[in-house]
């Protein structure tokens, strides 16, 4: 039994190195004194101070958080209701609705980005006033976030016993009370997971954001892309390190919240 365990540990070690070694390199080189080149010239934290004084980076961070939070809130609300409706109600064409729900998931980002750009262009010509900016960026992110939230919530509802909701109805609860006090607490881990997935997708999206953003709505992925074209510098590594740190912190926070709910 020891030999298979050793092989599994070796495979797991190789996989983790494959996944996290590039991130480790980025983090390490964010403390490199050399501005150009791959050689290590010494330890410094000046690039984080430089990044803090970079107005473009601060503005891009603000835009990224605004778009991420706003689109996640909207997509979580709509996606939860959509997943609940597809699971609990029967209506004509339901199978088609369920099938179309997966289309944005499998659709290449570039196709969705071009479609949204064309839609915004036509909407601006027909109605006017729809300039590309934070609003169009938020709407674009909501478009590809909703299916992911709905799929996660719907999968959570599949494992939920309908007898619990029926029992609440037998005890005098109406539809809203049953959803608020019985269904929602039971599917909350799925809603939280869907929201986390939606925020992560918004945080690292580049293609859709690049096509649907406008002046003054640059996000961090777009800023990093435009900076990397001039060469990878330690301040970009520092910015990437902060994004990784924020992602890890968010993951740990969500995990802690889910465990605390289970214990209570």
List the helices and strands and how they pair.
Blueprint: H1 2-29, H2 46-52, H3 55-88, H4 94-101, H5 103-106, H6 109-127, H7 134-158, H8 162-170, H9 175-204, H10 207-212, H11 220-228, H12 234-263
The description of the largest β-sheet is:
none
Please identify which CATH superfamily we are dealing with.
Answer: MetI-like
The average pLDDT score comes to 84
CATH architecture assignment name: Orthogonal Bundle
Outline, from the CA principal axes?
globular
SS-based structural class? Answer: mainly alpha
- Briefly, what CATH class? Mainly Alpha
Into which percent range does the helicity of residues fall? Answer: over 70%
CATH topology: MetI-like fold
What's the count of strands? 0
Give your account of this protein's structure.
It is a single chain. The protein is mainly alpha-helical and 264 residues long. The chain has one domain (48-263): MetI-like (MetI-like fold, Orthogonal Bundle). Helix content is 79%, strand content 0%. The chain is built from 12 helices and no strands. Helix 3 packs parallel to helix 7 and helix 3 packs antiparallel against helix 9 (175-204). The protein is globular. The two termini are 39 Å apart. The mean pLDDT is 84.
Produce a short descriptive summary.
With 264 residues, the protein is mainly α. It is built from twelve helices and no strands.
């Amino acid at each position: 039994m020891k030999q298979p365990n050793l092989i599994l540990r070796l495979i797991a070690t190789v996989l983790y190195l494959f996944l996290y070694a590039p991130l480790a390199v980025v983090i390490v080189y964010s403390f490199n004194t050399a501005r150009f080149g791959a050689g290590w010239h010494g330890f410094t934290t000046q690039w984080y101070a430089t990044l803090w004084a970079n107005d473009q980076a601060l503005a891009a961070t603000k835009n990224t958080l605004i778009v991420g939070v706003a689109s996640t809130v909207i997509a979580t609300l709509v996606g939860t209701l959509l997943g609940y409706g597809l699971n609990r109600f029967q209506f004509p064409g339901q199978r088609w609705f369920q099938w179309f729900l997966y289309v944005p998931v499998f659709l290449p980002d570039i196709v969705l980005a071009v479609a949204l750009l064309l839609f915004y262009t036509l909407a601006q010509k027909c109605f006017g006033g729809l300039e590309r900016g934070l609003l169009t960026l938020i709407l674009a992110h909501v478009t590809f976030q909703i299916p992911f939230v709905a799929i996660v919530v719907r999968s959570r509802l599949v494992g939920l016993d309908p007898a619990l909701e029926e029992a609440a109805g037998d005890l005098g609860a109406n539809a809203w009370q049953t959803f608020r006090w019985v269904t929602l607490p039971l599917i909350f881990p799925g809603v939280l997971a869907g929201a986390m997935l939606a925020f992560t997708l918004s945080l690292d999206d580049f293609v859709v954001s690049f096509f649907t953003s406008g002046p003054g709505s640059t996000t961090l992925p777009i800023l990093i892309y435009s900076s990397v074209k001039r060469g990878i510098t330690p301040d970009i590594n520092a910015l990437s390190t902060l994004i990784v740190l924020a992602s890890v912190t968010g993951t740990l926070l969500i995990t802690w919240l889910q465990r605390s709910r289970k214990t209570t």
